[in-house]
Amino acid sequence: MTPSEVQHSLRMEQRIVWLHAVDELPWYVRQSFTPDTGDHPVPGVRHTDSVRLVGYSVVENSVVGAPRTHRRVFWLKQGDPYERGAPDEAVDPSTVRPGTLGHRPEDVRRAPDSHQEAPAT
Questions:
Q1: Which of 5, 24, 98, 112 could disulfide-link 13, Cβ–Cβ 3.0 to 4.6 Å?
Q2: In angstroms, rounded to a whole number, what is the distance separating the alpha carbons of residues 6 and 71?
Q3: How far is CA 9 from CA 39, 41, 113, in A?
């Protein structure tokens, strides 16, 4: 998606639907965009043995002639969350709001910088 398509899709968001309470989710969820086909309330990511859908955005109907709208889906992959680090598409679910991208998780579980020494105790 181009940056303008992302911005258009974010402007079309009306609300975020969480399928689980946000405070019960791990410290990150995966965020991705999927075309809004209008024929299914939750298009794109489907529950499988390795993927669990945890939320999605609800978008306005597209205006004729407007760019194609994509909706965000929030999901977890088998093995999430990592002990250290996070995948590129990870966002802190507590920062997700309609119309704005979620923030990257700032968590103490991130892998330490291998060039830094541990602080003296």
A1: 98
A2: 9
A3: 17, 16, 36
Report field, pTM of the whole predicted structure over 0.85: no
CA-CA distances (angstroms) from residue 96 to 41, 50, 108, 109?
19, 23, 20, 20
State how far the Cα of 44 lies from the Cα of 107, in Å rounded to an integer: 28
* Ordered alpha helix ranges (H), the chain: 3-11
User: How are beta strands 29-35 and 51-59 bridged, if at all?
Assistant: unpaired
The distance from CA 14 to its chain's CA centroid, rounded to whole angstroms, is 16
- Look up tokens 């590129």; give the residue: 88
Cα–Cα distance measured from residue 25 to residue 35, given in angstroms and rounded to the nearest whole number:
25
Comparison of pLDDT for 37 and 79, the residue scoring more:
79
Distance CA 89, CA 4 (A): 19
Integer Cα distance of 30 and 97 in angstroms: 15
Residue 76 has pLDDT above 80, yes or no: yes
